[in-house]
Amino acid sequence: MNPIDDHLARFGPEQRQALEAVRTVIQSTLPAAAEAICYGMPTFKVVGVARTVGASDPLSDES
User: Fold this and answer.
1) What are residue 8's phi and psi, to 5 degrees?
2) Mean per-residue pLDDT, 40-62
3) pTM of the model
4) pLDDT for the residue numbered 58
5) Residue 34: phi, psi to the nearest 5?
6) Residue 12: predicted pLDDT
7) DSSP notation for 31-44
């Protein structure tokens, strides 16, 4: 598993399904994007520019 898989595993089934759908759209639109976690959220980096998807850790005290 990569960091985004680990992150999404913390969500409930309905939230995870919605976030996976968004992830699929991003992957199909930006196939060269590198996945990472940045500021506690899934991030897709394209040519060094980070595009963050707002899905912070549901178990974090910061959310």
Assistant:
1) -70, -25
2) 69
3) 0.73
4) 59
5) -95, 135
6) 93
7) TTPEEEEETTEEEE
Task: Name the residue with tokens 């309905």.
Answer: 14
Residue 12 contacts residue 26 (beta carbons within 8 Å): no
Phi, psi for residue 42 in degrees, rounded to 5: -55, 135
pLDDT for position 63:
42
Distance in Å from the first CA to the final CA of the chain? 23
> Which stretch of DSSP H or E encloses residue 45?
strand 41-46
Tokens 């598993």 belong to residue: 1
Radius of gyration of the chain, Cα coordinates, nearest whole angstrom? 11
What are the CA-CA distances from residue 1 to residues 35, 49, 62 (Å)? 12, 23, 24
- How many Å apart are CA 25 and CA 39, to the nearest integer? 21
